Amino acid sequence: MTNPHILIAEDEKHTRLALNLVLRQAGFNVILAINGQDAYEKIQQQPASHPISLIITDFKMPELDGLGLIDKLQRAGISIPVMVITGYGDKELLRQLHKRGYASYIDKPFIPEEVLHQITSALPQAQAVA
Fold it and tell me: pTM for this one?
C-alpha cells in the first residue's frame, strides 16, 4: 500500500510549507491548497487510486474557511477525516467541531511531534506511516 495522502488547506504560506515539510519527512504524500475552495476542488480531482486519507484545514481562511469546507464535504457525502489547525482555538470552535462530528484540532504555532502524533491517531491503522 502507498503512503497516505494528506491534504493541507492553509492560507498562510509559511504554515502551509512547514506542515508540508514535516509531513513529507514523515513519509506522507502531501497535497497543498490555499483555502477551503481550492481544497474542495483538489479533493474532487484526486484519483480514486490515490484517495485522500486526511485533511488538515485552517479554521480561518478567505473564500471558504475550515468549517465551510467541512460543511461542503458533508453535503456532498464525502467522508474524509478532518483536523482543524487554528490560532483561534476557543470553546466556540470546539462546539462547532463537535456539532459536525469532529473533535481533532491543532493550535498554532504547532509542535511537529504533536501534529504527527495526532495524524497517526486519526488515520486508520492500516494507513499509518511507521
Answer: 0.87
